Structure formats: C-alpha cells, structure tokens
Amino acid sequence: MVLIGGTTTILIPSKRMTEIEENPGVCNPSEIDINSNVSRETIEESAPEDLNDDCCDVEGEVEEQEERVPSPAPVSIVIKEIPIGDPRIRSKIKFQVVTAHVTEAGGKKHVLYTIMMKRINDNSRPAIINRRYNDFNNIYECILRSYHPSVLGDFQFPKKVLIGNFKAEVITERTEAFHKFLNLIAASENLLYSDYFYSFLSSDEHNEAVSYIKLSHFADAVPLLENIFNVREKLLTISSFYVLSVLCELIACQNAAGKKEAAFAHCLIAVKSFELLSGLQEAEVFRVPFLLLASNLAEALGQSKKPFDRKISELRYKGIKVSGVKSLLEVVQEKYIHIASHTSK
C-alpha cells in the first residue's frame, strides 16, 4: 500500500494481473484507488491470500497487546495527620468563653455562650461548644450536691434575674463568671472528670448526632461527631473507650457521607486506640468491622492496606469470624436503635 497525491492505493502483484484485466470495473490494472467506486468484493478478490492472512495476524497481535495492558494503580493521596495528645497522660485543660449572643428557639429568646476548650500550650484543634445559663447552673448545683461550696473557693455563681437577661452588662458579667467557673473545674480532677461535667461537655451534641445517624443523615452527623471527638480526646485521651466509640461512629459516618480521606485519617488514630484497649470486650464489637472498612479505604486512597489485612488474618487465625459480618455503620446504627431521636432542627 502506498500514498500517491493524497490518495491511498493498493499495488497488485503481477501474478494476479490476469484476473484484474478480466474485471471491467478496474480502469488501471496496475493500481486500485480505494476512494473509487470499485466494489469491496473486487478488492478482496484481487488481494493475495497471504496479504489477508497477514492483516488478521496483525489485528490479533493488537488485541493481544490490549489485553496485556495493566489497569492503572490507584493514585496515592496524601493523608493529613490529625494531631492528638499523649495517650499516656491526661493533658491540662483550659477553657475560654469567647462570645455570647442572643438567639431564639421555639419562640423564646435565650443567650448562648460559646466555649473554647484547649490543652494548655496547645492551640491545635480547639473544641467549640455552645451552652446556656441553665446548663452552667445545672453543673453548679451538681457540684454543691457532691462537695462543700469551698471546693470552688470564693466563687459566686451569677444569680438568675427575672428582668434584664439580655442587657449587655448582665451578659458580660455572666461571661466572665462562666470563664472563671470552667477553669476552676479544670483545676480540680474530681470535678473535671466527673460524670456530670463530662455530660455537660458533649451530651447535647451526641444526642443530636445519634438522631441523625438513625435517620441516615450521615453528613449532618459528621461535624457534631468531629467536635465530640475533639472534646473527649482532650479530656480522656485515645486510651478511653468513650473516645474510641465516637471515633468509630465518626469514621462510619464520614465514609457514608463520601468523606473518605477524613475517614481514613481518623482510622489511623483508631488503630492506636484499639491497641491501647486490646482485650476490652466493648471495643471488640467494633474491631473487625473497623478493620474491614479501614482496609477498603486504604485501597481506595492508594495507601498500604497490609497493616489492616495482617490484623484481620491474625483474628481469623484465632477463630474470630472476619467475613460476612456487619459493616461498621450497621454496628453503630444498631447500637442506638432503641434510643429516642432528638435533634435541634
């Protein structure tokens, strides 16, 4: 085959000349223009048999090469590490009431005080929560029921007022009082790690997150769970089951909401938490579903899945079922199936 003046032609071997001369459809017996009106049958009959065979062989080689082309490997995505505290010690905590603003809910006005919770000498990932006067008052009453008032020194809790709750001077006075109150609690381990203060820091948000999980509104649950994790990790460290449980909830919801990179970043923390809580029965409920999800996330993000698969193999060797089990999200949802829903929306 040659190209002449922009037209492709097929040169016919001389041994087939006689057949072409007998064919009236060919004007020039020495060459055939494939752009002419010559029928396909005429060209195929005129071409030597070995030429057709060679074309078939080439096509076969191309198909074979296409079959051998490997599928592209997943692109490795850089996972940003999430900073956490030393799991071996509980960090010193400080609180700051940063703002206060009047808001309305259910047709009633109230003041929301925004609290920032941080480790001393560490400003990374501060936890932010909003609380009302009644929330602070409940904590104060719990302390008085458990301890002598002297546990708070000379602190005077701001009194309720019937009129003027929304005046600037009242809000400012309460803001300063609540700031002092929270840091007095932080200075006392008995108060800081009490059940009622733990509830004060995260119960409202967790109740709302659980409601979203039950409704399968996973994207709405994610920011709440992220903040709860920040609070609990600062207060208790990842050696606490309460931190691990909210981590599993967060990872499951992030994955369900399509936030795979964030989910995997939290998986790297959860692995350490599982190691610290090895043998704890409550943690074992989450372990296999977590490892299976972490392995899938690692593969999807181009990360090494070997550490997770190795742990799965170790569990299988111990006789623990690792296939046909519930997903991490299913385990999380079943955990709260009998809890009444409650959302702020």
From TrEMBL:
One of its GO terms (molecular function) is phosphatidylinositol phosphate binding. Its main location: membrane. GO terms for cellular component: early endosome membrane. InterPro entries: PX_dom, PX_dom_sf, SNX20/SNX21. It is found in: Early endosome membrane. The keyword Nucleus does not apply. It is a peripheral membrane protein. One of its GO terms (biological process) is protein transport. Transmembrane segments: none annotated. Keywords: Endosome, Lipid-binding, Membrane, Protein transport, Transport. Residues 91-208 form the PX domain. PROSITE patterns: PX. PANTHER family: LD12265P, SORTING NEXIN 20, 21. This is PX domain-containing protein. It comes from Lepeophtheirus salmonis. The lineage of its organism: Eukaryota, Metazoa, Ecdysozoa, Arthropoda, Crustacea.
